[in-house]
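Long-time lurker, first post. I've been practising inverse folding by hand and with some scripts of my own, and I keep getting stuck on stretches where the structure tokens seem ambiguous. Below is the full token string for one chain I'm working on. Before anyone asks, I'm not after the true native sequence, just a reasonable design that respects the backbone. If someone could post their per-position residues I'd love to compare against what I wrote down in my notebook.
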């Protein structure tokens, strides 16, 4: 099993920045991909960004150029640097890990005020 603990959410004004962190523990040897998803009220959960063990990344079109995902394999931690935040970025952000199985964190709220 893999446990994921997120931190770094909060309230920020439009144009501001936040950095999310997700620390993995447990069967971390099995993890290949780590990523961030988000779910806004009344909407489906969507991929924000993902990164594999080699460092290859994938971003949603809506966040390209504003968000950066990075990974510290030594600390088993993935980060999401979010810049130029917009009100439409408001959502609960979930950390995900994928290897033999897929695991999810508990989610962290990000609220961007206009």
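-- Answer (accepted) --
I ran through it position by position. Result:
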């Amino acid at each position: 099993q893999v446990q994921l603990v997120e931190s770094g959410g909060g309230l920020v004004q439009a144009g501001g920045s936040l950095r999310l962190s997700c620390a993995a523990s447990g069967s971390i040897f099995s993890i290949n991909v780590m990523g961030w998803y988000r779910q806004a009220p009344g909407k489906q959960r969507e991929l924000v960004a993902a990164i594999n063990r080699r460092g290859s990344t994938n971003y949603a079109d809506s966040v390209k150029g504003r968000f950066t995902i990075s990974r510290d394999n030594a600390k088993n931690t993935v980060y999401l640097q979010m810049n130029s935040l917009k009100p439409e970025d408001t959502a609960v952000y979930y950390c995900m890990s994928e290897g033999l199985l897929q695991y999810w964190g508990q989610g962290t709220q990000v609220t961007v005020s206009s």
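A couple of notes from the structure itself: The first strand starts at residue 2 and ends at 7. The chain has a mean pLDDT of 95. Happy to go over any region you disagree with.
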